[in-house]
Amino acid sequence: MILEQIESILFKNRTKDQLIEDTLASLSGLLADTFTGDDVNALKIEFPEEIKIEEIGVQLKAAVIYLNSKEFTVPCIEVAIDLIQEKTQFEIGTYSLIFDENCEQIDEILNLY
Known about the structure:
By secondary structure, the protein is α+β, with helices and mostly antiparallel strands. It is built from two helices and four strands; from the N terminus they run ααββββ.
């Protein structure tokens, strides 16, 4: 009950599921560019050697609400997706999009381990 009330207040412009879909779409584009495109961000060398795009699985890590944060001056929502090497279940890293209170993207973070 409380979760639904919080979500109805925070997710007026877009639902939590839409923000998760946006994050997955953005991650897909980044991975496609990295492994089959121009790799404009030069990320391929950061991934495990010889890994292929089809070997990378994803799972939702969290959808987090920040009311007060040192990093962001406005309340925001972070949607974090874990990247996992499917064969070994080895965690490769985490990809996050940060949205402001209007559900507009304000940051993108990729942490590879």
